[in-house]
TrEMBL record:
Organism, scientific name: Colletotrichum spinosum
UniProt-recorded name of the protein: Putative 4-hydroxy-2-oxoglutarate aldolase
InterPro entries named among the record's database cross-references: Aldolase_TIM, DapA-like
CDD domains in UniProt: DHDPS-like
Tree of life domain: Eukaryota
GO molecular function terms listed in the Swiss-Prot or TrEMBL record: 4-hydroxy-tetrahydrodipicolinate synthase activity
Amino acid sequence: MNAGVAGIVVHGSNGKAVHLSREDRSAMIRCAADTIYQEGHETRMPLIVGCGAQSTRETIQLCRDAFKSGVSHALVLLPSYCGDLITDEKVVQYFHAVADASLIPVVIYNFPTAAAGRDLSSDTILHIAKHPNIVGVKLTCGNTGKLARVADKAPAGFFAAGGSADFILQGQVVGANGMITGLANIAPRTCVRIMQLAAEGKVAEATRLQAVVARGDWIAFQTGFVGGKAAIGYFEHK
């Protein structure tokens, strides 16, 4: 939090939410919320929580649990069990049904690897984004063209974010509002610095740092969340 990050995500793809009971998920959320608010920030830092599940009913329930635990936003991944049998129309209906029932704003999570390979198109995302309670998207698909289209055409105030440290700088170039990345758990200051340099027009320095971060992100990708947690433990004692 002291590294300059703008928010915290719990139960993302690097978390263990899929292996936790509903009660354990809520307990972890409350722990994160208590930690954030004990820091005494004058501005309440966003706490975004993964609430995706394999049914509309369970996703809505997780969103409501998150609200009760003090969460500001729900990060919702597309159900994956039926894969491509879910048409684009059904995808839109799913997100809109969740947003209708959720007491907190919803952020779309597009991560094909975690959704049976299903990759939402920019057209589908923009259709989903018409709902007033859907306020952003995290694109872990790595498609900067899609990110550019969404950032350009989404409703005013819509948060369009990349989902990997591989393309922080590239995302800034095409209009992203930010980045939600697991590597920020390990190197938050460097990730933030790339965005600062891009905003200041210091492209050469930002490019150099982006290359360093991309190498680190590739190692994190190869080792998965196990490697990420090991790295956090290692640097925590440095």
